[in-house]
Amino acid sequence: MESAQQDKPDATANDKPSYRGMGRWLLAALFLIVVDQITKIGFDHALRYGERINILPIFDFTLLYNKGAAFSFLADQPGWQRWFFTTLGFGASAFILWMMHTHRSQHRFMFALTLILGGALGNVIDRIAYGHVVDFLLFYWQNWYYPAFNVADAGITVGAILLIVDEILRLRGQHARSS
User: Fold this and answer.
1) What is the pTM of this model?
2) How far is CA 157 from CA 14, 90, 149, in A?
3) Catalytic entry in 36, 60, 135, 166
4) Which of 68, 77, 151, 159 could pair covalently with 36 via S-S, beta carbons 3.0-4.6 A apart?
5) Catalytic residue chosen out of the listed positions 36, 60, 126, 153
6) Are 87 and 123 a contacting pair, CB within 8 Å?
7) Is 60 a catalytic residue?
8) 27 Cα distance to chain centroid
9) What are phi and psi of 25, to 5 degrees?
10) Count of CB atoms situated within 10 Å of the CB of 169
11) What separation, in Å, do the N-terminal and C-terminal C-alpha atoms of the chain show?
């Protein structure tokens, strides 16, 4: 009877999900959120809405508010999009946390998810606090303008690019191992 007891795994240890190894990634996401919020507050205090400060022939600091999503998608709507994108941001963040928990050993993948998580939550904070996202980075060439963006948007974009790179490299690795 004693040996049967010893063969059973410790139920307490196995019932708890292990989040070991996620701490540094979550701290990195928090760092991105803090940098994002500090820069947004700084530009919101330093500039008037619509003001531009030329830095380079292709780059200005500016202050714009985006009530929509990327590229001002749905910005002209009466206000429901604030809560829609807030809910979407929280939902995406929950999914990302689950993905991070299940793929802790894949460092490039984790870094990509960390950037997306920090960016998503940085913009969610703006939506809750102000009803819009603060944008302040503006790239352009002559009469062509890329939509203004912020540190959170940059994190989301770089993270998405890293996800694609990670998947390509993972598939190449699988292909090389199967050959």
Assistant:
1) 0.83
2) 36, 18, 11
3) 135
4) 151
5) 153
6) no
7) no
8) 13
9) -70, -40
10) 11
11) 50
Note if 10 is an active site residue: no
pLDDT band with cut points at 50, 70 and 90 for residue 58:
very high
The residue written with tokens 């998503």 in the block is 120
By CB atoms closer than 10 A (0-12, 13-18, 19+), residue 12 is exposed
SS (H, E, C) the chain: CHHHHHHCCCHHHHHCCCCCCCHHHHHHHHHHHHHHHHHHHHHHHHCCCCCEEEEECCEEEEEEEECCCHHHCCCCCCCHHHHHHHHHHHHHHHHHHHHHHHCCCCHHHHHHHHHHHHHHHHHHHHHHHHCCEEEEEEEEECCEECCCECHHHHHHHHHHHHHHHHHHHHHHHHHHHHC
Burial grade of 64 (CB within 10 A; 0-12, 13-18, 19 or more): buried
